[in-house]
Amino acid sequence: xxxxxxxxKLRQGNANYVSAIAEGRALSTSLQRQPADLVQQRxxxxxxxxxxSRVPAELVFDQGLGDLFVxxxxxxxxxxxxxxxxxxxxxxFGTQLVVVxxxxxxxxxEATVDALTGNPDDLSPNLAAIVDRVMPAVxxxxxxxxxxxxxxxxxxxxxxxxxxxxxxxxxxSRIIRGLINRNELTIVGAExxxxxxxxxxxxxxxxxxxx
Length: 211
Known about the structure:
This protein is an alpha/beta fold. It has a single domain (7-21, 42-200), classed as Beta-carbonic Anhydrase, Chain A. It contains 7 helices and 6 strands, in the order αβαβαβααααβββ. The protein has helices spanning 3-23, 57-60, 80-93, 107-117, 125-144, 150-171, 174-181, and strands at residues 45-49, 68-72, 97-103, 186-192, 199-203, 206-209. The longest helix has 22 residues, at 150-171. The radius of gyration is 17 Å and the shape is globular. The two termini are 21 Å apart.
């Protein structure tokens, strides 16, 4: 499936998810698959998302078993294991779309903002390793919003972190860069609103809501 087709399928799936929440009905995607259909993976999109329990990508995009190759890590950060997982999916399955999915009320973003404005020594060494990867994106936002509303600050920090992850996937992977240069892969950033269930995709510096 081409990247634009995959993106449209995600948009439609999220629109159905939002509608199902509003109407109090079950999602339409069936999880019933024949075992033979799942022997081989055929994911049409890769999602690098946060490990937050409120953001399950398959539900958010109303997709079933085998549809999405999902990598979840706090703060949707980019590290060698995440890059390798994406390279694997691209090469093995020919998947042409990667979505880096951030979300509102992200604990990793809040921890990073708090570390920049408070005492970073309060973090455990393992949590600090995550915060350290988020900090380059968030620090300029914090520095420019010292007196702004905290919710606005956290939103801008989350978006900056998503955009950083999109860039790092390209910068740190020769395989990913090659696929992009051959028009065989597209990477897009997006954010999920826990309040509304809606996903907003980022495109060329603008935002485009799923509808």
